[in-house]
């Protein structure tokens, strides 16, 4: 059976754990030549090893997405290894939980650097390569938003601001990229088991109450595969994926 992403070349940032790892593993299982980027080399190497043992094609490129030179190197190494870039998933991100009045300017800037500037740097490089390549020209840029881009959590102004901004960047990239065959999509997950929740949870699935159900990163990865595997002429712009019992977003009372 033909795999859904056979021979596509994909970069996934934040691929050393959680949702990014889930997306990278599923992309590779679906036949994509997958480049895993994050800061922790040891974790990336282990994941690439496991993918390779299963017959997939993957490469680790340790990258801090806040560092322009490292982002440039990530895209250059991908092009050198696999010849083109079809899909870029801007997934790297950090959570915040601190009252607004206690946030220092330094901490504000640190979060902006990862959640926003990192997305910009990777999107800019993706656009440069996708615009320049042929047969076909273009590609897809999939950004990781959050349900926080719809309904903020308490005490998380940096996270909320960056996730709302990612929604805007997704529309802008699609508008400006259309003439080059470049489109962008955004995924807004609700609670998903990952490094964000590893301190509180032992795994995905039910929590202490029905409202605390945690999705598996593979649930979110299936949405990313769908986005990445649609015909070039078609784009799934936005997907919100939530545990059914996570009701505060969907209704009142
Ligand atoms: N889990 C949820 O419930 C949930 C819900 C909605 C949205 N999201 C979004 O999903 C995305 C992934 O988060 P996650 O939940 O999977 O958490 P996670 O397991 O903590 O993963 C975060 C990833 O981002 C990477 N990262 C952090 N700073 C980086 C930097 N400067 N440069 C490169 N990579 C960096 C981390 O790798 P290194 O530490 O190795 O660099 C890690 O791979 C985030 O954008 C998050 O906002 C998560």
Low-confidence stretches: none
Shape: globular
What small molecules are bound in this structure? NADP nicotinamide-adenine-dinucleotide phosphate
What about the largest sheet?
Answer: 7 strands, parallel
Counting helices, strands and paired strands, the structural category is alpha/beta
- Helix and strand element order: EHEHEHEHEHEHEH
Provide mean pLDDT, rounded: 96
In whole angstroms, the N-to-C terminal distance is 47 Å
Provide an overview of this structure.
The protein is of the alpha/beta class and 253 residues long. The protein has one domain: Rossmann fold, CATH 3.40.50.720. The protein is 42% helix and 14% strand. The protein is built from seven helices and seven strands; from the N terminus they run E-H-E-H-E-H-E-H-E-H-E-H-E-H. It has helices at residues 18-29, 41-53, 68-82, 105-132, 157-177, 217-229, 247-250, and strands at residues 9-13, 33-37, 57-60, 87-90, 139-144, 182-189, 238-241. It has a seven-stranded parallel beta sheet with strand order 3-2-1-4-5-6-7, with helices on both faces. Helix 4 links the parallel strand 4 (87-90) and strand 5. Helix 3 packs parallel to helix 4 (105-132) and helix 4 (105-132) runs parallel beside helix 5 (157-177). The longest helix has 28 residues, at 105-132. The structure holds NADP nicotinamide-adenine-dinucleotide phosphate. NADP nicotinamide-adenine-dinucleotide phosphate binds next to helix 1 and helix 4.
